[in-house]
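Weekly sync notes, structure subgroup
Attendees: PM, AL, DS (notes)

Item 1: joint prediction request from the bench team. They want all two components modeled as one assembly rather than separately. Inputs as received:
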Amino acid sequence: MNLTVDQVDVLQELVNIGVGRAAGVLNEMIGSPICLRIPYIKVLSPQELQPDLEIRFNGDILSTVGLSFSGSFAGTAELIFPTESASTLVEVLTGETAGTPDLDSVKIGTLLEVGNIVLNGIMGSLSNVLAQHLEYSLPTYVEGRIDKLVNSKQLDAKASVFLAHTRFIIEQLQIAGDIVVIFKVGSFDAMLKAIDLAFEGDNERDPGSPERVWHS
Amino acid sequence: MNEIQAAQKEFGILDRVPEGVCVLREDFSVLFWNRCLEDWTGISRSEILLKDIGIYFPHLHQPKYAHRLKQIFEGGPPTIFSSQLHKSIIPAQMADGRWRIQHTTVTTVPAPDFRFRELLSRACECDFRLGNAACESDIVESHQQLNNPKSFYALFVIEDVTDLTYRIQDYRAMRDRALEEIKERTKVEEALRESQHFIQTIADATPCLIYIYDLIEKRNIYINRQVDLLLGYTVEEIQQMGSQLFPNLMYPEDLWQVSAHQEKFTTAQDGDIFEREYRIEHRSGEWCWFHSREIVFARTAEGLPKQILGTAQDITKRKWTEEAMRLQTERERLMGVITQHIRQSLNLSEVLNTAVTQVRQFLGTDRAIIFRFMPNTHKDSNVVKIGNVTVESLASNCTSILGANIPECCLREGNFSYYQQGNIRAIEDVSTAANFPKCHIELLKKWGVKANLEVPILQGEQLWGLLMVQQCGTVRAWQPLEIELMKQLANQLAIAIQQAELYQQLQAANEQLQRLASSDGLTHLANRRRFDEYLLQQLLILAREKQPLSLILCDIDFFKSYNDTYGHQAGDECLRLVAKAIQRAVKRPADLVARYGGEEFAVILPNTDLKGALRVAKEIQIRVKDLQIPHFASEVSDCITLSAGVACLIPTADISSKELIAGADRALYQAKNLGRDRIVMCSESSCLSQV
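Output from the run, pasted for the record:
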């Protein structure tokens, strides 16, 4: 799917806002500076998702926190880490050392909350800015290889996948993960329409400087 | 119905769940507080409802909670407060003093819009008054205004995960401990491997065999790599032999002692060391001596010894040395024996016989001989032509060659000087012997000899003989020690022979001297000294036997006139003849005839009474008369006659020889007085009448 430069800019900005909010929450919670960066975003077809993730994560076992949403647009938002990175992240957040790479229920609780914070940031940002109310399910935690994660979604070939690379920077540590938002058929268009609609009005109010607003 | 009642109606069912549930309004005031929370906190709903929750739990106003809750009130996605990052959303203490650990999920619940209802009721009134269409649009507009943003409650569902958390913590502690133990174990195993490697290295570097043998399975369990070096077999080859290990490699004589040796372990205490010496065959076929020290290494459940741990040292060299020492000692012993025999006996044939017997015994040969050369009758020539086997010692399987000669061909000049230089001939196998004189080999073959060792016996430059040891049954490789022994023995023999020969000469000289000292030079009869000795001797003997002893003293009548008439030479000749005649008249070996004085003779007759003595005296008288030596100066006859006095007594301890002599002398004196040429007897104290 081809997006206009403006659409990309808007999406990136929305994600940044959401992530920024999430970082703020995390900072307040753990009391040490944590930074969340989104180097870039892209829109893919479901077929492209798996190879893309495989290149990124190299066959590692992944930890995923998912949040389903429905309403004027529907789909799931996912925060994906290699399990080992996830474990490291949990260690940093809880100050406990993990004995083994597998995440026991203690770690799952922590990760669930972190994913919740990040995804809430993103989804809140999207829904608020677009003034759209969405219904959400409870966040879930899943662990497994990429193929299992992707297959479990039973993606419609016509669905759209919106992917944002994420980087957590805590103290000296950098943890890479991905935020994947999968929109059901038509939902992404609905969202883009909503974006266009929202920012048309904005553009009317401040026609001279849309870039300044979205690229700051 | 007010808001509280509405909330109670909507959420009342949650009083029945075993989790804490409360509902907050946008302004943080509590709209619902379930029974579970009343239990946990001790705060009753009548107390808390419609109050700001911050009054009781001020931390909820902190940004980290407030910001996230704000999203809820705006209709955002559910929010999770995990027990790991928050511990307690609504702090509550349990009876045992611990704080409840809580996992909290906050979800949005649409708030029933009381303001909208107000508007709606107002609108209805309006509709009633103003007409439908306009009113409706107004209501929809105001509804949209109020409903957007719509307002939400926050529904807290608080799960008590205290037990779960503690259980998980226990589990983690347990797991950490297990991991620690595994790590420790890995370390120990690593250390063990290292120490095994260390021991292995030491075991392989130790210059002796280290092994473990299983008594029950009857096989080798472990052996260090030295086995390759010491026996020429690899560890694998040794272990593949299994129960055939000892039968394969051990010396047969040592093999049958194995079970007796292993029997000792059944009564062994731990730490008891059992030592043993035995021979094992090297791969090359050589026999190696080993000295082993073994202890019980492992036991069965019943406490019986199962495995033994041992070290075995190659003592082959030591054994050789010991053997050499033994031979050396034996040789010295043999030398000692022979030397002793030489000292004990100066008898040449005894010395020679001892030598051959001992040497044959010691060397275990079939035959030992001494071959003696006889000096040549031609004194000028050094060449010895004659010789024979003088002594021999034989095993039963050998024929005697005693007295055998060596043919002349063996004693030619070159051959002889070869011996004279002290050279030794050792022939391992007569049938294949080369570089030896043909004649000599032929001789040995004729004697049935298979192996021969000969050494010359030299006395200075002089070749006295040969000492030979021979094998008749088999060939034999003569050992340097044996050759050395033979050499020494020959030297000792030479000395012994010389001593024996000197002794023989001395003995002969002594006998000669003895004879000279006890005999009369003219008549070769016993002299006066011998007479005195013999008489004394016989007196003692016969006193013991209580047997009579007789003595005859006789004197040639008118011998002085004979000398004067016929000269001294004729006198001497006369004495010689008379002496011979008297000697002939005396028959018994114990009788002794002696020249008593100038022309006076004495005859000692042991075990002879007066009658017997008289018979002898008469015999003497007759024999002398029978000589018919003319004596014209005699006043009683025209030829030589004798006067004799005979005395006899049974000796006792208090009778001395003087009394017997005096008796005989008195009788002789009487015979002279009575006119000579007669015999007068004297018995005990008084002389008997003339015969």
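Discussion: Chain B is about 45% helix and 20% strand.
Action: AL to compare against the crosslinking data before next sync.
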